[in-house]
Amino acid sequence: MLKYLRYIFRVVPRIVFDLLFYLNRYARHPEKYPLEVRYKRVRDLVCYVMARMRMDIKQKGLEDFRNRKGSFLLVSNHLSDMDPLIIIYMSEKPISFIAKKEVYKFPVIGKCVRAIDGIFMDRADLKQSAVCLKQCADRLKVGDLSYCIFPEGTRNKDPKAPLLEFHAGSFKPANWAKVNVVPMAQYGTFRVLAKKPNPKRIPISISVLPEQGFEAGSTELAATCSKLIQDEVNLQIAYDEAFFKEGKEKASLRKLPKPYIHG
Prior knowledge:
single chain, 8 strands
């Protein structure tokens, strides 16, 4: 309970401020404001929120990820509503999302996604889904914005269970736009807003894996990325278990005002 009260008092005023003075305008009329301006405002808010959460982020491949030039399609496993926030926090360059249509009406997250040119997909409507994937491909061709999609289609509610099946259609925008696919593995994000366990340091693992060429078919890309991410998640789980076994969660984060990121 104290954790949630801390979040409320520390982040809600800033969220309300940004919502009233920026996000509402950006979400209604994104065409009136440069993408860089909109993305920076959203990312600044995300960084502010993340700085109030006691995360110990073990990263791999982050430097190469941040130094990539041009657009790409990021694909990742999906364990928590925190996953998109982690990705925005990690990416200094504009990146947006193909999200389920329900996110559009979310009061804050929905407007953040709309403000950075997010695409909202109705997973039950195959025709509309195809239009969304084509829209993503067209934007990737422009080269000013990368996109993230979660090929599992929904959150995996059991963090240690095998990944859900990757939908081959999720990789079509990369084929159409002729951009590479960047796989990312995440573990531990489900713990940030959970009631238990409630460690002083929340271990999260983020691994950016070798990019895959768009030349492969979407079915082949889906299988390759699924295996790469699954293998990496298995390593992340092993690290996570060692983290708690060694008692590292007892260390304090008082001297670390921002999420602690290490290799």
